[in-house]
Write a structure and sequence with these properties.
The complex is a heterotrimer of chains A (124), B (236) and C (563).
Chain A: H1 14-41, H2 49-58, H3 64-88, H4 96-121
Chain B: E1 2-9, E2 14-21, H1 29-39, E3 59-62, E4 65-68, E5 80-84, E6 91-93, E7 96-97, H2 100-108, H3 130-136, H4 147-151, H5 153-157, H6 164-174, H7 182-189, H8 203-207, H9 214-233
Helix pairs in contact in B: 2-6, 6-9, 7-9
Chain C: E1 2-8, H1 12-24, E2 30-34, E3 50-51, H2 60-70, H3 77-96, E4 111-112, E5 122-123, H4 129-141, E6 147-151, E7 153-161, E8 164-172, E9 177-188, H5 209-216, E10 221-222, E11 227-234, H6 244-247, E12 251-253, H7 274-286, E13 291-293, E14 296-302, H8 308-314, H9 316-326, E15 335-344, E16 347-349, E17 361-363, E18 368-369, H10 381-403, H11 411-426, H12 434-448, E19 452-453, H13 455-472, H14 486-510, E20 519-520, H15 528-531, E21 533-538, E22 545-550
The chains are: A mainly alpha (124), B alpha+beta (236), C alpha/beta (563).
Coiled coil (chain C): 451-478
Protein name (chain C): Fumarate reductase flavoprotein subunit
Family (chain C): Belongs to the FAD-dependent oxidoreductase 2 family. FRD/SDH subfamily.
Chain lengths: 124, 236, 563
């Protein structure tokens, strides 16, 4: 069964866009999770050499862009997720448009702050 | 003059056909379709009946959004109007789609009042205050047009998904103060092609021509179903 | 396919009949055939309410008297007396089945005033009574295993052999094939014939299919010349603005801003019966006191003084429709309306048990004429009639089917029917467009068979209809495909309408009096001496043959009808 039905945007409202991004960021986070666990499993060799090598690459100014994008996915998925959980309990459905706006603003704000922190930590 | 581009299907192949319509103020898309049928090409097939937005026959995709053709004004759509059959339904011919499955799903949720004292021969008046009526009234307005089902991503990716309309119908009865069949219905909708598959795209509420808000009905149904399951697990 | 009972038409009457038959015996197999899905029927358009004697202060006697007086004494009074006693139980039954009737503060079912009724007995569900009744009946019908629904089957003929009904033939629209349903009993609940007119409240699908088929098979049609013109049809679509608008207190104003009804029905004013109000409005328009608009003259229906809250509570559909289809918000402006063709009082001749001249063939609802409504129908009585006589037809047909022989449609009939539709109609070439014929039919009906009729206009209508029938023999259907051929079904419908138009026009020409909704400028008085009788029209190849039968009077002798 194809999943292309999740990604229709012609003539759709912002709620469909939010739904689409929730799917996309979810997939990204899943891929990241697998990568992250693989990454951490390199510690099994007890020397930490592979781990240190990977840290040197990934925690750097050049890699910052990917981190910022990753944090965007995580923050969006999480905060939008809160909104969805709220509605799925049947709460505040009448205010869905304002709620979408508010939660998006919160997500962007958190993301900008997190990006700033990461930027300063990588010596920028 | 407005150009109408219609996606047609003759049973074998799908193709686009264009017509020029002299549009007047107040002319609806349905009237335009009848104009085409009676003056240009009488093989154009579409469903229509009441022309006043209560029968639900004429739901179709107009400029990428599903609407009732009888309620859509031509001149509000611009110079070019694109008309296609609803998504997520099998096309039978031109703008006519297969609704058998849709009505089967509606039937599956037991959309009728279930009461222990159901006596056909001697009915007795049941009381219901205006407040109790308002609890579920908005959900009785569903005309089963299929617009919600056509924009639902869950329906697009799973053929068996009950769909917003069927679940709104289930909720309409669960919220009716006269009904005694809630448990039965919760069992039916509590499945992976029922309430649990809705992940809140909410497009259904945006396109419903009668403002029934099926997404709200599904969420309220989820809440009731979840509590019902919880209660039965705890032996209440 | 074989069934015990076949019901054609899935509106309020058809679905009620199916439920009644299925309840009578679970062993009976019932087939419900309709040309659309059941909830797309025309009954969903009903708005105002369903009349029933439910409360203290009301009585069956009063309801019956209102109905008989409203019918201008053409109604059969024994049938009316039976009818009014059956309405209340149907309301309660629907309520038990889930119908969301509007309620009083104490939880009891509410009722509102309606035209022609001397007690507030119209039970209503906001102003979408038809929508809710249809959905309730449909949902209830899903509970019965012995009812099988056949949506999108287009009926073409009735099979009558050896003086009894054997079944029906219908085109399965999806595939285009002809299907034959053999049955012990057949009920027609196919609705009226409003699309004869151009300006009408009817859905596109109401083309008198059952009426024409019964007529062509020798079953008489009764009182066809009586067409009701509802006072308030929205301009320009003809969409119904329910009588409830006036029942809730709306005013009708001419261009001078006056409530002109005081000159025509000083006691009841706007809630006089529909024929009285329609004639009043049309007189105002003809005499130049209507407003001028881009679609012609009109009358204003003013609801502004009711206030937004009351309109939203009691008349939400009206407000929605006026905004969507006429661009007018009733809270701020008056609605432009004019009289519109609305109901077919006439129909297949039946008795009180829905039986017709052919054994095993029954009719109920708008397509039948018992006659309850006589020469003019009171508002809120039609949905009530469909419920009551739908039930009667279902039960009587079930009783009949329990003892009848199975239907058998001969091979000869099957061949003839397939040839008639697919070879003779679909296959032939010609030079007439069926849609052009329909357009001209609508024009002549709107002009000559409207509220005020007179001899020359009627004669012209008859001549034109005969000319159109001739031209119809030469139609060519462009769409030659089989699957979902709406061109073919539209053309067959136009054929039905032409046959019915002839019956209506000649019947109106022959009836030289004015009674109820049939008003002759050349014979403006009611003539009880010569015309207190029902018109019966029988099919002959040269045109309808007319006969008459007396009205059943039990209690109320005809008196002058004043409001």
């Amino acid at each position: 069964m194809s999943v292309s039905g999740w990604f229709r945007f012609k003539g759709r409202s912002i709620f469909s866009w939010s739904f689409m991004f929730q799917r996309i960021t979810g997939v990204v986070l899943l891929i990241y999770l697998i990568a992250h666990l693989t990454y951490l499993s390199s510690l099994f060799d007890r020397t930490g050499a592979t781990y240190e090598g990977m840290i040197a690459i990934t925690v750097s100014k050049q890699f910052l862009v990917f981190d910022i994008l990753l944090v965007l996915c995580g923050v969006f998925h999480g905060i939008n997720g809160f909104r969805i959980i709220l509605h799925e309990f049947g709460i505040a459905y009448e205010y869905r448009k304002p709620l979408l706006a508010i939660f998006t603003v919160i997500a962007v704000a958190v993301w900008l702050y997190a990006s700033y922190v990461m930027y300063s930590l990588t010596g920028g | 003059m407005v150009e109408f581009k219609i996606r047609r299907y003759d049973g074998e192949k799908s193709y686009w056909q264009s017509f020029e319509i002299p549009a007047k103020r107040g002319m609806t898309v349905l009237e335009a379709l009848y104009y085409i049928k009676e003056n240009y090409d009488s093989s154009l097939a579409f469903r229509a009946s009441c022309r006043m937005g209560v029968c639900g026959s004429c739901a179709m995709k107009i400029n990428d959004k599903p609407r009732l053709a009888c309620e859509t004004q031509v001149l509000m759509l611009g110079n070019a109007v694109k008309v296609e059959p609803l998504d997520n339904f099998r096309v039978i011919k031109d703008l006519i789609t297969e609704f058998e499955g849709f009505f089967e799903k509606h039937k599956a949720v037991k959309p009728y009042l279930i009461r222990k004292d159901d006596v056909y021969a001697e009915p007795k008046e049941l009381l219901q205050t205006p407040e109790e009526l308002n609890e579920y009234y908005i959900f009785t307005l569903c005309i089963k047009c299929g617009a919600c089902y056509s924009v639902c991503p869950a329906a697009a990716t799973l053929d068996d998904y009950l769909g917003p309309a069927a679940m709104a119908a289930a909720y309409r009865f669960c919220a009716d103060s006269r009904d005694e069949g809630q448990r039965e219905r919760y069992r039916i909708v509590s499945s992976s092609n029922g309430v649990w598959r809705c992940h809140l795209a909410m497009e259904c509420s945006e396109v419903c021509p009668k403002n029934v808000e099926p997404a709200k009905a599904v969420q309220l149904l989820r809440r009731k179903t979840a509590f019902s399951i919880l209660k039965s697990l705890l032996g209440w | 396919m074989e069934y015990d009972i076949v019901i054609v038409g899935a509106g309020i009457a058809g679905m009620r009949a199916a439920i009644a038959a299925a309840e009578k015996s679970r062993k009976l197999s019932v087939a419900l055939i309709a040309k659309t899905y059941p909830i797309r029927c025309h009954s969903v358009c009903a708005e105002g309410g369903t009349a029933a004697v439910l409360r203290e202060g009301d009585s069956f006697e009063l309801h019956a008297w209102d109905t008989v007086k409203g019918s201008d004494f053409l109604a059969d009074q024994d049938a009316v007396e039976f009818f009014v006693r059956e309405c209340p139980v149907e309301i309660i039954r629907l309520e038990n089945w889930g119908c969301p009737w509007s309620r009083n503060e104490d939880g009891t079912i509410a009722q509102r005033p309606f035209g022609g009724h001397s007690f507030n007995r119209a039970t209503y569900a906001k102003d979408r009574t038809g929508l809710h009744e249809v959905h309730t009946l449909y949902e209830r019908m899903l509970m019965y295993d012995n009812i099988e629904i056949f949506p999108e089957y287009f009926i073409t003929n009735l099979a009558i052999e050896n003086g009894a009904v054997q079944g029906v033939s219908a085109i399965k629209l999806k595939t285009g094939d002809m299907e034959f349903f053999e049955a012990k009993a057949v009920i027609f609940a196919t609705g009226g014939a409003g699309r004869l007119y151009g300006f009408t409240t009817y859905s596109h699908q109401v083309t008198g299919d059952g009426l024409a088929i019964a007529y062509r098979n020798g079953i008489p049609l009764k009182d066809m010349e009586f067409f009701q013109f509802h006072p308030t049809g929205l301009i320009p679509s003809g969409i119904l603005m329910t009588e409830g608008c006036r029942g809730e207190g709306g005013y009708l104003l001419n261009r001078n801003g006056e409530r002109f009804m005081k000159n025509y029905a000083p006691e009841k004013m706007e809630i006089a019966p529909r024929d009285v109000v329609s004639r009043a409005m049309w007189t105002e328009i003809i005499e130049g006191r209507g407003f001028e608009g881009e679609y012609g003259p009109y009358i204003a229906l003013d609801l502004r003084h009711l206030g937004e809250e009351k309109i939203e509570e009691r008349l939400p559909l009206i407000r929605d429709a006026a905004i969507k289809f006429a661009g007018v918000d009733p809270v701020e402006e008056p609605i432009p309306v004019k009289p519109v063709a609305h109901y077919t009082m006439g129909g297949i001749d039946t008795n009180m048990r829905c039986e017709t001249a052919v054994k095993g063939f029954f009719a109920a609802g708008e397509c039948a004429c018992v006659s309850i409504h006589g020469a003019n129908r009171l508002g809120a009585n039609s949905t009530a009639e469909c419920l009551v006589f739908g039930r009667v037809a279902g039960e009587v047909a079930a009783e009949y089917a329990l003892n009848a022989k199975p239907g058998k449609i001969s091979a000869e009939f099957r061949q003839k029917e397939e040839k008639r539709i697919f070879d003779d109609l679909l296959g032939k070439s010609g030079d007439e467009s069926p849609y052009q014929i329909k357009k001209e039919l609508n024009e002549t009906m709107d002009k000559n068979m409207w509220i005020f009729r007179e001899e020359n206009g009627l004669k012209e209508a008859v001549r034109k209809i005969r000319e159109l029938k001739d031209r119809y023999r030469n139609v060519e259907i462009n769409d030659r495909s089989r699957g979902f051929n709406t061109d073919l079904t539209s053309t067959i419908e136009i054929g039905y309408m032409l046959d019915l138009a002839e019956v209506v026009a000649i019947g109106a020409l022959k009836r030289q009096e004015s009674r109820g909704a049939h008003y002759r400028l050349d014979y403006p008085k009611r003539d009880d001496e010569n015309w207190l009788k029902h018109t019966l029209a029988y099919y002959t190849p040269e045109g309808p043959k007319f006969d008459y039968k007396p009205v059943t009077i039990t209690k109320w002798k005809p008196v002058e009808r004043k409001y």
